[in-house]
Specification:
With about 350 residues, the chain is mostly beta strands. Helices cover about 10% and strands about 50% of the residues.
Length: about 350
C-alpha cells in the first residue's frame, strides 16, 4: 500500500496559480510550479492511496528419466509468469490501473520467448462530439473480458562470428578422435599411449610430435611456425527481428467500439569487422516492413595508434543523417586534446 498527499495544496509551497482571461473573455485558472525544469523537479499533483497487487511464478513439471539418478528430471514450462496492477482508493473515477503481464518461455538454449503485455480494463464509448473516450465502466461487467490488449511484442536475435564455423568443425573432429580416427591418445589400433605421448614412438614420430608442440606454443604467443605474427580476421554479424502489436488510435471501429490493432515488423542487422588488432569497423541497419524501406543506416571506423586514436562515423539517410571525424589522445589526462569535425544542420551548413 502507498499513500501520497496532494502537493498542489498551497501549504506545501510546490504549486502556485493565477487567473487570466482567454480570447473569449472567460476566466481561466493556470497552475504552475516555480521548480519545474530545475535539477530536482517538483512534487506531483493530486493525492493517491494505492493498493498494489503483484503475482510472480514459474511453472515446471517432472518427467521420468532413466539417465537421472533420481529417476526423473525437471522440465521448465514457463520460466516467468507475472501480473501486476493497482487500485487507487482516493480517485473519484477510473480507480483501476492498467494490467501489466509478462511471460517468458525457453524453447531452446538459444531462443527464449519473452512477452510483456498491457491490458486496459475499461470500456470505450463515444462522447457528445462522436470521439472515442474511456469511460468508468469495467469491461468484465459487460462480458468483454478482464481487459483489452493494448500492446505487446517480442524479438528474436541470432549472432555468428569467426569462431562459429571453427567450433562446429572442431566438434566434428572431436567425435572422430573419440572414434579412434583422429590424433588423440590412441595409435589407431585401439591401444592407448602414455600420458606424455612420447614413449613408444619411433624417432620420426617424435620429431613430428615435438614440431606440433612447438607450433602450438608459438601460436599461444601470437606467432606462427615461421615466426610471423598471427593476424586473425575477427568479425561478428547479428540479426534481430522484432514484431510489435499496438492499437491504432486513428482507426476506430464503431461497430465493435474498439480501436483496431496493427502489427509492426522490423529487421535489424549489425556487425563488426576487425581486420587487424588496431582497426575496427562497425555497421548497423534497420528495415521496416510496414514502410518497406530502410529506416536507419550507420557505420563507423576506428584506428588505434601508439597513443592516439582516430574515429569516423556516418549516418547517410534519415532525419538524423550526419558525419563525425575525431582524432584524440588516449591518455585520460589528455582527453581534451583532440580534433573534431562534424556536421551541423543547425548552423545552416550542409551535412556532406
Amino acid at each position: 500500500m502507498s499513500y501520497r498527499p496532494d502537493f498542489e495544496n498551497p501549504r506545501f509551497g510546490f504549486w502556485r496559480y493565477y487567473y487570466f482571461q482567454n480570447q473569449h473573455g472567460d476566466d481561466v485558472r493556470h497552475v504552475y510550479s516555480p521548480y519545474t525544469g530545475m535539477m530536482f523537479g517538483t512534487a506531483p499533483r493530486g493525492r493517491s492511496g494505492n493498493i498494489n497487487f503483484a503475482f510472480q511464478n514459474n511453472v515446471e513439471m517432472r518427467v521420468r528419466s532413466d539417465r537421472d539418478p533420481t529417476g526423473s528430471r525437471r522440465v521448465s514450462l514457463i520460466d516467468d509468469l507475472g501480473v501486476n496492477f493497482s487500485y487507487n482508493m482516493m480517485a473519484d473515477s477510473m480507480n483501476w490501473s492498467n494490467i501489466n503481464t509478462n511471460l517468458r518461455i525457453r524453447f531452446t538454449q538459444r531462443y527464449t520467448l519473452s512477452l510483456s503485455m498491457v491490458w486496459d480494463p475499461y470500456m470505450i464509448q463515444l462522447n457528445e462530439r462522436g470521439q472515442p473516450v474511456r469511460v468508468d465502466q469495467l469491461r468484465i461487467r459487460h462480458g468483454r473480458g478482464f481487459g483489452r490488449l493494448m500492446s505487446t511484442g517480442t524479438s528474436f536475435s541470432y549472432s555468428i562470428n569467426n569462431n562459429t564455423f571453427s567450433n562446429l568443425f572442431a566438434r566434428g573432429e572431436g567425435r572422430a578422435n573419440r572414434n579412434g580416427n583422429g590424433n588423440g591418445n590412441g595409435n589407431g589400433n585401439g591401444e592407448r599411449l602414455p600420458d606424455d605421448g612420447t614413449i613408444g614412438l619411433n624417432p620420426n614420430e617424435f620429431e613430428v610430435r615435438s614440431g606440433a608442440q612447438a607450433a602450438a606454443a608459438a601460436a599461444a604467443q601470437g606467432y606462427d611456425a615461421d615466426g610471423f605474427m598471427i593476424n586473425p580476421l575477427n568479425w561478428n554479424l547479428s540479426f534481430n527481428y522484432s514484431v510489435r502489436y499496438g492499437l491504432n488510435m486513428q482507426d476506430f471501429d464503431e461497430r465493435r467500439m474498439e480501436f483496431r490493432g496493427q502489427l509492426t515488423h522490423n529487421l535489424g542487422m549489425s556487425g563488426s569487422i576487425q581486420p587487424t588488432a588496431n582497426w575496427n569497423i562497425t555497421f548497423n541497419a534497420d528495415y521496416n516492413f510496414d514502410l518497406r524501406q530502410v529506416t536507419n543506416i550507420s557505420a563507423s571506423i576506428t584506428r588505434r595508434m601508439c597513443c592516439w586514436s582516430m574515429s569516423a562515423s556516418i549516418v547517410p539517410i534519415g532525419p538524423w543523417r550526419s558525419y563525425m571525424f575525431t582524432v584524440r589522445a588516449d591518455a585520460s589526462l589528455l582527453r581534451d586534446l583532440k580534433y573534431d569535425q562534424r556536421s551541423s544542420r543547425g548552423g545552416g551548413t550542409r551535412w556532406y
